[in-house]
Design brief:
This protein has 239 residues and is of the alpha/beta class. It contains eight helices and nine strands.
Length: 239
């Protein structure tokens, strides 16, 4: 399915109108508690219906939500009329350089950007709009976890078998963009192993500060299905 077409549909509007009221998830609250100081300007990329944007505004941040879908921005504005939202493309942001203290790309948003060159451009754009010393945080699918399942979890094992069979048929088994089954159907989405993601960030110039685990009862592990990466744009020498 084409992601933008999906978000423009009536079913997605209804679904994300509910999602936009859900607020922060535990992993996002841990991320904020561990790495983010009070106050500052935040860019919430792939904001959808404002699920993350609105709670950040409530916490006192100067936040702007950006999404490529005009329909999602309309939903977000209706749900959260006191928050700033804009239609925009993460690969070509309209903000000046060094505009934000934080850039957040939540809920697998970065991994829905394709092709891989555009995903990398989104990372580069996040670097550009961050102030020196600013933080970039995003979650990313762990490619390794697609192939390894807890043998005691029958549902997880069955999904792994289906994943392998589906992508073997499609010729995408070794691709970073593989076909994954979600509640709304099967879609092609990116995945990367944590060491490779760290190298991508380092190549741009980021200092990787750490990973926040997707589950609150464990530390980050090599098989964590979707950890949050937290990276800092270094300050200029002498600052």
């Amino acid at each position: 399915m084409e992601r933008l077409e999906y978000y423009e549909g009536d079913g997605a509007v209804e679904k994300y109108a509910e999602v936009g009221r859900e607020g922060l998830r535990p992993v996002e609250r841990r991320l904020l508690d561990e790495y983010v100081d009070d106050g500052g300007r935040v860019l919430d990329l792939g904001c959808g219906s404002g699920r993350v944007t609105a709670p950040l505004a409530e916490r006192g941040f100067d936040v702007v939500g950006v999404d490529v879908s005009e329909t999602m921005i309309e939903v977000a504005e209706a749900l959260h009329p006191d928050v700033e939202f804009r239609v925009g493309d993460a690969t070509e942001l309209s903000f000046p350089a060094e505009s934000f203290d934080y850039v957040l790309f939540a809920d697998r948003g970065l991994d829905d950007v394709r092709p891989a060159a555009d995903r990398m451009r989104s990372i580069l754009e996040s670097w550009r709009v961050l102030k020196p010393g600013g933080l970039f945080a995003f979650d990313a699918n762990n490619q390794l976890s697609r192939f390894v399942a807890d043998p005691t979890d029958r549902a997880a094992v069955a999904e792994t078998v289906r994943f392998v069979a589906r992508n073997r048929r499609a010729g995408t088994l070794r691709s970073r963009y593989a076909l994954v089954e979600y509640s709304n159907g099967v879609d092609r989405t990116y995945a990367i192993v944590p060491p490779a993601q760290r190298r991508q960030l380092a190549a741009v110039g980021f200092d990787v500060l750490g990973l926040v685990p997707s589950a609150d009862d464990r530390r980050p592990t090599p098989l964590d299905p979707r950890p949050y990466y937290v990276a800092r744009k270094p300050r200029a020498s002498g600052e």
